[in-house]
Design a protein that fits this description.
The protein folds into 2 domains: 227 residues, Vaccinia Virus protein VP39 (Rossmann fold, 3-Layer(aba) Sandwich); 63 residues, rRNA adenine dimethylase, C-terminal domain (Helicase, Ruva Protein, domain 3, Orthogonal Bundle). Helix 11 packs across helix 12. The strands form 2 sheets. It has an 8-stranded mixed sheet, sandwiched between helices. The N and C termini lie far apart (67 Å). The protein has 322 residues and is α/β, with parallel strands linked by helices. It has 12 helices and 10 strands. It is 34% helix and 17% strand. It is elongated. It is an enzyme of class 2 (transferase). Pfam families: RrnaAD (PF00398). It comes from Cellulomonas pakistanensis. Belongs to the class I-like SAM-binding methyltransferase superfamily. rRNA adenine N(6)-methyltransferase family. RsmA subfamily. It is found in: Cytoplasm.
């Protein structure tokens, strides 16, 4: 794909409009692809709604995944955020800095490749160096699923229009590896939003619901119409917000709890004593651990909350007497 061969018109406002989005894509030879789940937001009102519902404040460090042509990036910068944008598409990553410079005069823009990101130095309790002197964007080129550290100040929020095909893995990756995230506001496929925010016992409750609940409380906040995207997707979208909280108090590790969750939902509608038999080393051992955790062995995974799963994992890994 080639970059633009002609000058780009000066920005008419702080956000991208439909005509400029299409022109940027055309000049860069970009065709939105289903493989990367690319659906670009055309509507400035939707962008500002996302930023508003995320409670972004001036000077805050925000991480964005999949910035695309920069619609949401500019909305975050307009709110005064200091943005680190993770982009897997090298053409889009190369286009974004120029777009930001045209729309946000004086913005400090930097680009880093994911393999070159060092784990930030410093220890908990070190003073916050504060925001940079101007609106700031760091483009991090690479796969969001490979992120283990981010350049610059630690972010306190994740705000993104997540690619549909990797939304749950990306969400869980950042909740795990970026513990400074206090809240998340993402636009995802409506069905995914329902699964992430589902309570125990509901039709859509499953692995994403429990794993997200390990890190945060989740709720669906709004439905987003298909017409705000280019190309128009064939599914509905929604905003889901997660607010960080402490995981359940347990001696089991997160990996141990998640292994129980995966096993419990591997075959839906199966009693938990049967679902965990292989993991526990037999049906009897599973029944003992489940009962000791205060859970009905005939219950199904769909009925258990994250705290119950943690109790079961703890009992499965409890040291045996003698």
């Amino acid at each position: 794909m080639s970059s633009s061969t002609g000058p780009v018109a000066p920005a008419a406002g702080p956000l991208l409009g439909p005509a400029e989005i299409r022109a940027l894509a055309e000049r860069a030879g970009i065709r939105p692809t289903k493989t990367l789940g690319q659906n670009f937001v055309l509507d400035g009102g939707t962008v500002r709604k996302i930023v508003r519902q995320a409670d972004v404040v001036a000077g805050e460090r925000v991480v964005e995944v999949g910035p695309g042509l920069g619609s949401l990036t500019l909305g975050l910068l307009e709110a005064g955020a200091d943005v680190v944008a993770v982009e897997i598409d090298p053409v889009l990553a190369g286009l974004l800095p120029d777009t930001v410079r045209r729309h946000v005069p004086g913005a400090v823009v930097d680009t880093v490749d994911l393999p070159d990101v060092a784990v930030p130095e410093g220890t908990p309790g070190d003073p916050d160096p504060g925001p940079p002197p101007h609106p700031s964007l760091t483009v991090l080129r690479g796969d969001a699923l490979d992120v283990r550290a981010l350049p610059g100040r630690a972010p306190t929020a994740l705000v993104a229009n997540l690619p549909y095909n990797v939304s749950v893995p990306v969400l869980l990756t950042f909740l795990e590896h970026v513990p400074t995230l206090e809240r998340v506001l993402v636009m995802v496929q409506a069905e995914v939003a329902d699964r992430v925010a589902a309570p125990p016992g509901s039709r859509t409750y499953g692995v994403p619901s429990v794993k997200a609940a390990w890190y945060a409380s989740a709720r669906r906040t709004a439905t987003v119409g298909r017409s705000v995207f280019w190309p128009v997707p064939n599914v509905d979208s929604a905003l889901v917000r997660l607010d960080r909280r402490e995981p359940p108090a347990t001696t089991a590790s997160r990996e141990q709890v998640f292994a129980v969750v995966d096993a419990a939902f591997a075959q839906r509608r199966k009693m938990i004593r049967s679902a965990l038999a292989t993991l526990a080393g037999g049906a009897e051992a599973a029944t003992r651990a489940i009962t000791a955790a205060g859970v009905d062995p005939q219950a199904r995974g769909e009925a258990l909350d994250v705290t119950a799963f943690a109790r079961v994992a703890e009992q499965l890994h409890a040291p045996t007497a003698g």
